[in-house]
Every structure is written in structure tokens, then in C-alpha cells.
Design goal:
8 helices, about 5% strand, extended
Amino acid sequence: MSAITSLEDCFAYDSALVFGVGGSGDVLARGDEPGVRSPVTDGIGLVALEELETLLEIVETEASRIPVEAARGEFGPRTIRGGEVSLRTTPASAVTFYLDPTAVAATSSIADCVRGSDTLEEATEALRDAGLQMEFETERRRLEST
């Protein structure tokens, strides 16, 4: 199952595109320095991240805004999910950790459940059959009722 295909199926998008800042540091460049190779993608990615603040004012999300708030120095205890989940933001909350997806998937019972699913519905049903609760279904019902 492709993540982009799932997004297209679920939200009726024709395509999905995500930009991020790379690890080369070129995003901090003026563009004319020796060795700068990707000013177009870095520039587009930087503008997309700049627009993230505006998007977070429009999009209803709690967990996805935590790294942005942590990057602004907003640390400490908080609750999300209507008070059901307690957490503490720290400087590490603004850091992206990269893991080997094969190693993580090899130990993930959730990955075992959805492996072989061709659609978002099949994956959701497999997780439901395993007795797992999904915030996704709650959000879907909320959107359908509006």
C-alpha cells in the first residue's frame, strides 16, 4: 500500500507532495556559494516550512504541532486528545529521529496487521479486527458528521 495512494483515496487528492529541509545545510545559503547544489529544492522546502505556521492555524491537529511549538521553545507538560493523553515537550520534541524502517517493521505488531493491505479501509479493518482502537476512525466520523 502506497502512502500517497492512501492519501488520494482517503482525501480525494490528485497527488500529495511533501517538502522538508535537507541535511546539507544548503537551506541556509545565499545560493552562490561554492558547493551549493540544490537551491531550488531548498528554497521551496524553506517556503513550505515557513507556511507551516499558517497551516497549523487552519488544520486541526495536536500531535503534529508539538515539534513546531517545541522549536519555538514551548516546553513543559500538556494534554492532548481532550485531556486523555498527557505528555511533556522538551528540546528533543523538536528533533526528528530517523530509524531503519525495516528493523522497526520487523518488530511491529501493527505492521504485521496491515502488511498486505491494499487500501486504507483494509488496513483499518485489520487493525480493528486485532482489537486496536484508532483515532483515525474517530476523526473520520467527526469529519463525516460536519
